[in-house]
Amino acid sequence: MTELIYLTVLLPLIGFLINGLFGSKIKNEKIIGTIGSGAIGLSFIVVLLILIETLGKPADQRVTIVTLFQWMKVGNLDISIAYQVDQLSILMALIVTGIGFLIHVYSIGYMHGDKGFWRFFAYLNLFIFAMMNLILADNFVLLFLGWEGVGLCSYLLIGFWYDRKFEKSTTASAAKKAFVINRIGDFGFLLGIFLIYMTFGSLNFTEVFTAANHIPVDESVVSFIALFLFIGAIGKSAQIPLFVWLPDAMAGPTPVSALIHAATMVTAGVYMVARCSIFYAMAPTIMMVVAIIGLLTAMFAATIGLVQNDIKKVLAYSTVSQLGYMFLALGVGAFTSGIFHVMTHAFFKALLFLGAGSVIHGMHHEQNIQKYGGLKKYMPVTFITFLIACIAIAGIPPFSGFFSKDEILWYSYAKGNFLFWLIGALTALITAFYMFRLLSLTFFGKERFDKHHVHPHESPKVMTVPLIILAFFSIVAGFIGIPEVFSGEGGNQIKNWLAPVFADAHSKKITYGMPSHFVEILLMVISVAGAAAAIWLARHVYLTKPGLADQIANRMKKGYSVLLNKYYVDEIYNKLIVQPIYKVSDGFLFKFTDVKIIDGTINRTASLIDLFSNNIKRIQTGVAQFYAIIMMIGIVIALFWIIVSLI
Amino acid sequence: MIPIEYYLSLSAFMFIVGVVGVLTRRNAIIVFMSIELMLNSANLTLVAFSSYLGNPIGQIFVFFVMTVAAAEAAIGLAIIISLFRNKKTVNIDEINILKW
Amino acid sequence: MSQPLAYFFDSLYLIKPETSIIGFLVLILLYDLIFKKEKWLPYISLFGLVVTLFLIIEQYGYNKFAFQSSTNFGMMAIDPFGAFFKIIILLSSIIVILFSILSKELDVARDRMGEYYTLIFGMILGMFLMVSASDLILIYIAVELVSLSSFVLAGFLKNDSRSSEASLKYIIFGGVSSGIMLFGISILYGITGTTNLYEMNSLLQNFDSTNILMILTMILIFAGIGYKISAVPFHFWTPDVYEGAPVTITAYLSVASKAAGIVLLIRLIKSTFVSQKDTFGYWEMIPAFDWQGFLIIISILTMTIGNFSALWQSNVKRMLAYSSIAHAGYILAAIAVLSDQGLVGVMVYFIIYLLMNLGAFLIVIVIKNKINSEELEDYDGLGYRMPLVGVAFTIFLISLTGIPPTAGFIGKLYVFIALVDAKMLVLAVIMLLNSVVSLYYYVRILKHLYLNKPKAETTDIELSFSLKLFILVLAVPNIIFGLYFAPILEFVKTSLIILGI
Questions:
Q1: Does B22 touch chain A (CB under 8 A)?
Q2: ∠B40-B43-B49 over CA atoms, to 5°?
Q3: Does the beta-carbon distance from C175 to B49 stay under 8 Å?
Q4: Tell me, what's the pLDDT at C252?
Q5: Total structural domains in chain B?
Q6: Mean pLDDT, residues C3-20
Q7: With contacts defined as CB-CB under 8 Å, which chain B residues touch A624?
Q8: What CATH number is given to the structural domain containing B36?
Q9: Residue ranges per domain, chain A?
């Protein structure tokens, strides 16, 4: 069964080819949608069967490498198209195909009537293809190909409605921004890959990680590798300072935001760092960097989320913030918790986005939450599922978000320090607050939209069924990771499942003694109580006493506008980086270096070549005898030259 | 017995005459004759060496070369006739529409 | 049965593919004489080629001599290396015969097509012998057989003065070259007293000084081979003949007869001048002639002159002729490594060269059929009038340039790797620079196809379904092999067995 893993890559590719090549001719949305979703659905079934088979094997035999073919062999460098099926990649593949499938189905309803319907499904399938390559790859080259592939699809899908306006500019420029910023991260990633090849002489995961584990390597080299890889992760997973592209990426259709910019692609950075956990375990300094960046991002993005009015923007900042949590987990060495949070987050964040999509769909593409209100009675299914997602993200037990988030907070205390926990917990409170602000403003209170023109309605079944399924998993997904303090030693299923993957990294990292269970439960109670209080506060501010929010905003005008303008990060980048680069490149690089030096050289060379080739071709006079003469001269010269060289 | 050097000198001379003929004569038919001369100089060398080494391979080779030369001459003449029909000339230096 | 006769019958068994070609040659000749109908000839030819292909595949693993003499060396070496190139020759023959069915240019000569196919089979036979020959007599006869058939084929359109002119230039140049080669062979025979390459090798083993006469003979012999593979300075006939000859024949000459010439060169070097092979597959050479230095110079000259002359050509066929000279230069560079890895480069390159070059010529034929021109300026805007042709041509040209993800990149990559491994960096860099130059003229065709406005008002040109399919059959592998080339490599590595050391 495991050998069939290639199907999970092949099927989306086939779907992409069919829809991409013939989509414009098929025209029938049902067929296109069925092909697109069917390809992913089948892949999901394959992954599920592989999971069942793998569960039947003993824990130390769960890694299988499926080599399809050798792609190139150049000297030592041996790159195969090979897939590594192990606990981590199976989990990621389940998330990608499972949630991917639901979002595909949802898109059939959401994209109904769009003129680019076939293009949309082709891109989505291509994205899944690239993403599966990314997570299944058994070497860095294939991983990088997938990495670039998802970046390309992200670019294509952000700019999907290339003819529409987005904020002050166009969707195309949002797509470009995402692409350029990702390039910065990719550059770091590439440097990391080169360094790995230089150090270990291979790019194969098994070989590199085994070598890293057993051969003594200079710590500074490993630190650089870890740092470069992390720079790649920062770009892809939208961390400080490269997070600015993700909120703009909301220009794409909402299912895209759900799939790519919440559930799967942005977690690729987390996956990659977890995959390379051994490097991080060997470089404690870089791990600290990872933790701090994650923590800061979580806090920073959450505060911005407090005041945003665009429903998708709020969710985007919330995603950035949750990704920060994941890096915090990785940074303190709780790799399992990070991956666990990737999973639960995928469920509830996809649900939030799809719910938001449903609202936007019902509200005729209005995205401002100040213009919603009281939608509960118009969209009951959307409301209930959205509520479940909000509870999950706020971290209220026994919903899934509670388990993963609390585990992260616990480890940030146990393996990190109190400050980590404090900021993390504070972020959790803020998260609960702004999520319920969003919920209150959207579904409760007065109806603030124009009732004559806007008629809110529930979405069709094809959209609500995926919502219900996701809601179900948002509730129960946490039970595979019940903390050991409740479930007893070895009762945390996901930890047991992933343990072999991170065994080497854990053995490298020095662990301190764990604090007692009492402390764990105490911290848990505090954070849950805090979240509950934040929820109450949000309802109080936005429902019971409407107008209070405005008063607070007025009183703290400065702070409010800083938050509303996202700490002016975009403006600062523009002033400090974009403008100077532009000026230097225009004034010096273009007008001087490019025009004078490079163009000048090229033009001279070109005219030289021109002259040369014109003269060379004149030898071909067309007279056969002349040819024979030159041939004879050639023979004589060759003879002469060899004889002279002998003397 | 005549020493082998004599044969070889003669054949080298024939070869050079052939080459010079190819390079200088304008008439395509004479050019072909010069090519035949080159082939025959090689034949002379082969036979000379064959008898000098007491080894029959060279003489066998000569028969093949003669056959090939005959075929080449036949094809060459046919091509010249075909060209003459088109261009009304067999002067090589006038046949140069294909160039550069 | 007496011993020599037994040898003889054993050998007949080994030359089944050649026998099959002869049989079909006679069959085509008779059919043409008796029925005088063109219609079935191409299909009989194709059938004959397919049968021969099966025969070659059947005897693929053999590694022995045919027609052994008393010294245990034979006239022909039947080995996987030869079989590999015979397969390449057959594939290109099949493709070229399909071209001939399509080509409108040959319509004026449809009543003489019996001769056409007979001559093509004559060429195939000659090339098969060239590929296997290990005796100077057979080498000479094989080269002449190929040449004589191709002289006639180049002038096949006898009412077209360009075709006749091409033919005349070809025969003069070919005659002179083979005359020079024969003179070289005759001296070589005098020096060694044998005509068998392997026997020569065992005689040369304890030959440790350089001999001016030996150098002379090698240069003279190289004149004959160099003319076949159009290496500078023996390339002058190439552009003129390629331009004047029918496109189908041009395509054939540029792939098949070049392949045969390359094999002849490799076999000459490998079976005569190699004393032993080291563990990395590098050949230790007998110091009778500095093949490496000689080939490096020739290859640099060939690729540079080919590319630079191609830059300003206005006739696409002529441009492709120069481009094929440049490609011969790349292949010579790989041979100059004188190692098994270099040979891998040559063989990989040839499979891919077959696909991309014949593909480009197919497009030239298709366009010539539709607009009756091979001039670059008549190609203006064709990319929009014939979308499939435009896309396919783009693929072929990019592949010829050697840009990923096309197969051409893989071909260049393997040559490049062989050069770098052998520390021949200067040659590698020159090759890279040449690729850059070649990009210019290949892209120039694309510019005409897509960016230039057509001069007159035009309509879309429709292609028949079978033609579209044919174009795709050549274009798609150019992409697939660019991404997934393990099977090519596998095939090449199993074929890398040359009889002898």
A1: yes
A2: 145
A3: no
A4: 94
A5: 1
A6: 83
A7: 92, 95
A8: 1.10.287.3510
A9: 1-138, 139-564, 570-646
